[in-house]
Write a structure and sequence with these properties.
With 231 residues, the protein is α/β, with parallel strands linked by helices. Helix content is 44%, strand content 21%. Strand 2, helix 3 and strand 3 form a beta-alpha-beta unit.
């Protein structure tokens, strides 16, 4: 049913947790394959992927969008593609909701063009993380612009119609969300828990990134233009 695609780059520790959350779905046959496309890691990312039985591809020096696109082209066993980041841990029971969404999509005429994403949560404690979650929820619901950390579940047919991930150095998550359109996005109740900490970035970097994403999400400026501001 689902082919999972994860783009990694020295993601050994994060990948262990991300893959563990996929085990129940694989055991029930919801996930048919997991494809790891790596940027040339120097840690044990490949060993983790091999131990978990993942399909492995090494693409040194490539951007995340290139690796996601490559992984989608490698997928053979799923009619639906689930794009995840290695630092994202899907909440227990997520696959039941994802399966219900796919089954519902199969019963409606426009179902194959429906796309799902998860609710964003941060592992970090503190007010900054909670505010970031709230901002992400508002942006997702109003603008239909989920972060890449929230995952993206899309039919292979619709992904190909959209032209897949464009080869951008950053903001590939907003670029494809913009092409999907808010009316086609469904936000599942299950959470995608990110190990990232919003407080780790400097204030200047956070403001630049927020402004770039605002330009793409609200002002509808093309991602390839806003990516220079994003840094």
């Amino acid at each position: 049913m689902i082919s999972v695609v994860i783009a990694t780059d020295n993601s050994e520790t994060e990948l262990v947790h991300a893959l563990s959350a996929l085990v129940p779905a694989a055991a029930e046959g919801v996930i048919r394959e997991v494809i790891i496309v790596d940027a040339g890691s120097s840690d044990n990312t490949e060993k983790v992927a091999d131990a978990a039985g993942c399909v492995w591809a090494s693409c040194p020096g490539t951007s995340r969008s290139e690796r996601l696109s490559h992984g989608a082209a490698m997928a053979r066993r799923g009619d639906w593609l689930l794009f995840l980041r290695p630092e994202t841990l899907l909440e227990s029971g997520w696959h039941h909701e994802a399966q219900a969404f796919i089954e519902r999509a199969g019963r409606t005429s426009n179902g194959p063009r429906a796309v799902a994403s998860f609710r964003l949560r941060f592992e970090a404690f503190g007010l900054s993380a909670r505010i970031s979650e709230m901002i992400a929820a508002i942006r997702s619901q109003l603008l239909g612009m989920p972060y890449g950390d929230q995952g993206l579940l899309i039919s292979r047919q619709f992904y190909d119609e959209l032209g897949g991930h464009r080869l951008l150095p950053e903001l590939e998550d907003l670029d494809i969300a913009k092409r999907i359109g808010r009316s086609r996005l469904v936000f599942l109740r299950a959470a995608a828990v990110s190990s990232g900490d919003p407080e780790n970035e400097g204030m200047t970097a956070r403001l630049r990134r927020a402004l770039a994403r605002f330009c793409v999400g609200t002002l509808r400026i093309p991602a390839r233009v806003a990516v220079k501001l994003h840094g």
